Amino acid sequence: MKKIKSKIFFTAIVSAVFLSGCVTTGEYEQIRADITKLHIENSQLKQEVSELKTRMDKMSSDLSTATALKEGQLTLIAQTQDYVKELQILKGRFEESSYSNDKKFKELSDKIAELQAKLTQPQQPIPQKEPEQKKISPGQLKNPKEIYDSAHVDIKEKRYASARDKFQEITKNYPDFELLPNSYFWIGETYYSEKKYEDAILAYEEFLKKYPKHDKAPGALLKEGMAFLELKDKKTAKVVFERVIERYPKSKEAEIAQQKIAEILKSQNSGKKSTKTKSKTKTKSKQ
């Protein structure tokens, strides 16, 4: 269509020139060549404009992509900075918790060491009062299973010292006995039943050191905390109960330990309130 228009334009010019009678054949050819050149230059110019427009569109697209990437990078940097801050906070909490736990466990270890030192001091033997029934000494039995079963009979009959002797016989002379771990546990139980809580704590601790993953381990640690509670040492008892929850979080003993901690905290809060009330009463009486 454009070519047709150009031809019509060219013909009109040529016609006008010839009609005027002022142009020679050579001038006509020159004019025609100039017009053709202008047409070619015009086409090239249009092509260059089109290419320039294409490049501009591409640059605009690249610029939009770069802007989006920069915004994404800035967002990512901001998120990373937030994560770093959160990580620092969590690290601080972890270090604080770790220090607190280490301190508590050190106090517990010191307490147990103190009990060990206290119980190793020479003391006057206290005669044991037991029901007058026929006792079976470990030496009269043939194998560790018989000794073990006999010890449990003694426990049912509340002959705790006799039962303990038999369990101790097993721990000393039958290291391959399948119920050896249980024997260590029941030594603690005999002491606890006799209300010898300090001895019970040491016995439970020995069992836990030897068999920390045994089925009876949660119960032994819980009873250790109960023994400290019976000794009116609520602070250490709380540490032990927390240890139960930490080591055996899904156990029934952990639930009981949580209840015991709640009871300790409740009693401590009640004591604080009572102290404040007494203080206020004294202040009023002075006035």
UniProtKB/TrEMBL annotation:
<dbReference type="InterPro" id="IPR014162">
    <property type="entry name" value="CpoB_C"/>
</dbReference>
<keyword id="KW-0175">Coiled coil</keyword>
<dbReference type="InterPro" id="IPR034706">
    <property type="entry name" value="CpoB"/>
</dbReference>
<protein>
    <submittedName>
        <fullName>TPR domain protein, putative</fullName>
    </submittedName>
</protein>
<dbReference type="Pfam" id="PF13525">
    <property type="entry name" value="YfiO"/>
</dbReference>
<feature type="region of interest" description="Disordered">
    <location>
        <begin position="267"/>
        <end position="287"/>
    </location>
</feature>
<feature type="compositionally biased region" description="Basic residues">
    <location>
        <begin position="273"/>
        <end position="287"/>
    </location>
</feature>
<feature type="domain" description="Outer membrane lipoprotein BamD-like">
    <location>
        <begin position="142"/>
        <end position="264"/>
    </location>
</feature>
<dbReference type="InterPro" id="IPR039565">
    <property type="entry name" value="BamD-like"/>
</dbReference>
<feature type="repeat" description="TPR">
    <location>
        <begin position="181"/>
        <end position="214"/>
    </location>
</feature>
<keyword id="KW-0802">TPR repeat</keyword>
<dbReference type="InterPro" id="IPR019734">
    <property type="entry name" value="TPR_rpt"/>
</dbReference>
<keyword id="KW-0732">Signal</keyword>
<feature type="region of interest" description="Disordered">
    <location>
        <begin position="120"/>
        <end position="142"/>
    </location>
</feature>
<dbReference type="InterPro" id="IPR011990">
    <property type="entry name" value="TPR-like_helical_dom_sf"/>
</dbReference>
<dbReference type="GO" id="GO:0051301">
    <property type="term" value="P:cell division"/>
</dbReference>
<feature type="coiled-coil region">
    <location>
        <begin position="28"/>
        <end position="62"/>
    </location>
</feature>
